[in-house]
Write a structure and sequence with these properties.
The complex is a heterodimer of chains A (119) and B (141).
Chain A (H helix, E strand, L loop, with lengths): L1 E5 L4 E10 L1 H18 L3 E12 L1 H16 L4 E4 L3 H10 L6 E3 L2 H12 L4
Parallel strand pairs in A: 2-3, 3-4, 4-5
Antiparallel strand pairs in A: 1-2
Helix pairs in contact in A: 1-2
Chain B lengths: L1 E8 L4 H13 L6 H22 L6 E9 L2 E8 L7 H5 L15 H8 L2 E7 L3 E9 L6
Antiparallel strand pairs in B: 1-2, 2-3, 3-5, 4-5
Helix pairs in contact in B: 1-2, 2-4
Classes of the chains: A alpha/beta (119), B alpha+beta (141).
Chain lengths: 119, 141
C-alpha cells in the first residue's frame, strides 16, 4: 500500500496492491484512519488497479472509510477497479455512495463538481 | 471422482492459501476466469466466517474437503467453533453478527450468488459446515 497526500484537494490517494481480504483490510483501515487524523484530509481515492482479488472484507473496509469521510463532508473515489471488484461493489449496492472512475483525475473532477468547487 | 482435503490454522493469513488451493483444484474442469474468481470469493467468505465468527480470534482449525464428480465441484468448509445460533438470520443479506467490526454482512449472499447450491449445518458449541456446489460449464468451441 502506498499513500500520497494531495493537500490541494484534502485527499489521500492510496494505492492498494494484491489481495484485499480480511487479512489485508485491517492494515488499510488503521493506516487510513491514522493518516486522516494526522493530515486533516477528508477525501480518499483508492487506486484498485493493482488489486487482484477482493471479497466482502474489502466492501466492509470501503463502507467503514465512507462512514469516516462522509462524517467529515468528504468523498470516496475508487478508480482502476477490475471487473471482479466492480461486480462486488455493484452487488453490495454501494455504488451510489462512491465516485467510481477510470483515473484519479476523472475522480477528482467528479468530486469537484459534486462539491461545486471551481477547478 | 477426484478428492482433496486441506486443514489449516484459523488464522487470517491462511485465507489466501485456502482460496488459492481451492481454485487450483478446479483447474481440472477447465473453468473460465469468472468461474475461478467466483470460487475463490465464495471460499474466502466461508473461511473468513470460520475465522472471525466461529473462533472469534481464538485458535482453531478449519478443514476443507473438495471433490469433483463429472463437471461438478463440491467444497465443504468446516470449523469446530461456536456454531451459528440462527442460520436463517445469518444468511440474510446485510445481516452481520459483528456490526462493530466493519463486516458487510454479504458473506452468505456472495456464496449463494457465486455457487449453484449452498447448504449450512451448524451445531451450537460444536461447529459449522458450509457445503457449496458448482457446476462448471464447458465451452465447446
Amino acid at each position: 500500500m502506498e499513500m500520497t497526500l494531495l493537500s490541494k484537494h484534502r485527499l489521500i490517494a492510496v494505492r492498494v496492491y494484491g489481495e484485499l481480504d480480511h487479512h489485508a483490510a485491517g492494515d488499510i483501515r488503521s493506516a487510513l484512519e491514522r493518516e486522516i487524523k494526522r493530515t486533516g484530509a477528508i477525501n480518499i481515492a483508492f487506486d484498485f488497479g493493482s488489486v487482484t482479488f477482493m471479497d466482502s472484507s474489502g466492501i466492509g473496509m470501503i463502507i467503514g472509510r465512507y462512514k469516516t469521510v462522509s462524517a467529515l463532508g468528504g468523498e470516496i473515489i475508487i478508480y482502476g477497479a477490475s471487473e471482479q471488484v466492480s461486480r462486488l461493489i455493484e452487488m453490495a449496492g454501494i455504488s451510489h455512495l462512491l465516485i467510481l472512475s477510470d483515473t484519479l483525475q476523472q475522480g477528482i473532477d467528479a468530486m469537484s463538481r459534486r462539491k461545486r468547487v471551481n477547478i | 471422482m477426484n478428492r482433496m482435503e486441506l486443514k489449516f490454522s484459523a488464522k487470517s493469513v491462511n485465507e489466501r492459501l485456502a482460496r488459492t488451493v481451492c481454485a487450483a483444484f478446479l483447474l481440472e474442469l477447465d473453468p473460465t476466469v469468472d468461474e475461478m474468481s467466483e470460487v475463490k470469493t465464495a471460499i474466502s467468505e466461508a473461511v473468513t466466517n470460520s475465522i472471525i465468527h466461529a473462533y472469534n480470534g481464538e485458535s482453531g482449525v478449519v478443514e476443507i474437503k473438495a471433490e469433483i464428480e463429472g463437471d461438478t465441484v463440491t467444497y465443504t468448509v468446516r470449523d469446530f467453533g461456536c456454531g451459528i445460533d440462527d442460520i436463517a438470520k445469518a444468511r440474510e443479506p446485510l445481516y452481520t453478527g459483528k456490526p462493530d467490526s466493519e463486516r458487510s454482512g454479504m458473506g452468505f449472499a456472495i456464496m449463494e450468488a457465486f455457487m449453484d447450491k449452498l447448504e449450512v449445518e451448524s451445531v451450537k458449541g460444536e461447529g459449522t459446515a458450509v457445503r457449496m456446489i458448482k457446476r462448471i460449464t464447458r465451452d465447446e468451441q
